């Protein structure tokens, strides 16, 4: 199975902070990876909003998008995504209108409806707006989109946003956002790396619900996929160990930075741990270039995806860069 040449490849980055590392280095590594990704021909580079998460430095997502756009020239840069319930829609409109003003035609606004964090952190972020839930997302989205259009009847204006609406994407890991994206005629990005069992039903629902709009005449589907590529299958599995251990630690109530491959290999996993990790990470594409080629090709064949957004969480920056280099060579 080969990877079709017309399927775009993109990058999803969480600015990982490894054990023993620091946020400043992680952010510099993000800028370095973005420059390299552009040279390698990746189509877009998205940053993900996560809060109160050791090992992730992309919390100030809009700020980081601006820096990535500043050090690149052609690649699209955006959010994968902004968790809209965490923010006042007018603030998101102002931020992304400003980004679009600085980098016209290169900014994407990807939106999610989940808080993307625990309830205590959500309370700290939202303050008096903590009662908002994912079910309020369509109303918030409508308010946000309105700020990008001139309206003399509106008493409040997001001044930097007016006339500067970047392409808006809906992100999801279930059918809710898939259906809404289809009904609104928006591009849809599905989190295959988080909820692989929901991928095919959500893709089907998106296409069945799709109505042409000013933004799109036909559905456009992107899948976010966790990928680790190395020279051999064994090396790739070794490098993938830290993200498995980090997930397991978080599952047991202890959030940690990305451990080393050595620590991941030495950990005393129970049978229950191994079962959980196999279920959670079975959809990841991990291996040599040929293994990754087959895995991504099968995924595209099964879903008809127009674009794949690859997220690679490994401990060493050089290994992360090398993974993206090897995948780029598959085309």
From TrEMBL:
It comes from the Bacteria. This is LLM class flavin-dependent oxidoreductase. Residues 9-306 form the Luciferase-like domain. The lineage of its organism: Bacteria, Bacillati, Actinomycetota, Actinomycetes, Pseudonocardiales. To bacterial alkanal monooxygenase alpha and beta chains. It holds the Pfam family Bac_luciferase.
């Amino acid at each position: 199975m080969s990877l079709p040449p017309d399927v775009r490849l993109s990058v999803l980055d969480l600015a990982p902070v490894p054990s023993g590392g620091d946020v400043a280095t992680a952010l510099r590594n993000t800028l370095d990876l973005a420059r390299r990704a552009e040279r390698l021909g990746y189509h877009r580079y998205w940053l993900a909003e996560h809060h109160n998460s050791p090992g992730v430095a992309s919390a100030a997502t809009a700020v980081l998008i601006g820096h990535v756009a500043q050090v690149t020239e052609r690649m699209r840069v955006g959010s994968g995504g902004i968790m809209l319930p965490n923010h006042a829609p007018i603030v998101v409109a102002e931020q992304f209108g400003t980004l679009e003003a600085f980098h016209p035609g290169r900014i994407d606004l990807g939106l999610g409806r989940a808080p993307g964090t625990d309830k205590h952190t959500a309370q700290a972020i939202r303050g008096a707006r903590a009662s908002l839930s994912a079910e309020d997302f369509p109303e918030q989205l409508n308010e946000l989109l309105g700020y990008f259009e001139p309206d003399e009847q509106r008493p409040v204006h997001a001044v930097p946003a007016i006339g500067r609406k970047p392409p808006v994407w809906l992100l999801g890991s279930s059918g809710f956002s898939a259906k809404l994206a289809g009904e609104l005629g928006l591009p849809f990005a599905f989190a295959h790396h988080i909820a692989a069992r929901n991928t095919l039903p959500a893709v089907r629902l998106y296409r069945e619900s799709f109505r042409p709009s000013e933004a799109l005449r036909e559905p456009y589907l992107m899948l976010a996929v966790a990928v680790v590529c190395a020279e051999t299958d064994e090396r790739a599995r070794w490098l993938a160990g830290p993200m498995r251990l980090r997930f397991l630690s978080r599952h047991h109530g202890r959030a940690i930075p990305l451990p080393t491959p050595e620590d991941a290999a030495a950990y005393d996993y129970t049978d229950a741990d191994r079962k959980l990790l196999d279920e959670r990470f079975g959809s990841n594409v991990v291996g040599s270039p040929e293994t990754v080629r087959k895995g991504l090709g099968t995924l595209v064949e099964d879903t008809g995806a127009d674009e794949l957004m690859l997220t690679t969480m490994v401990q060493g920056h050089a290994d992360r860069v090398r993974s993206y280099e090897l995948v780029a060579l598959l085309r």
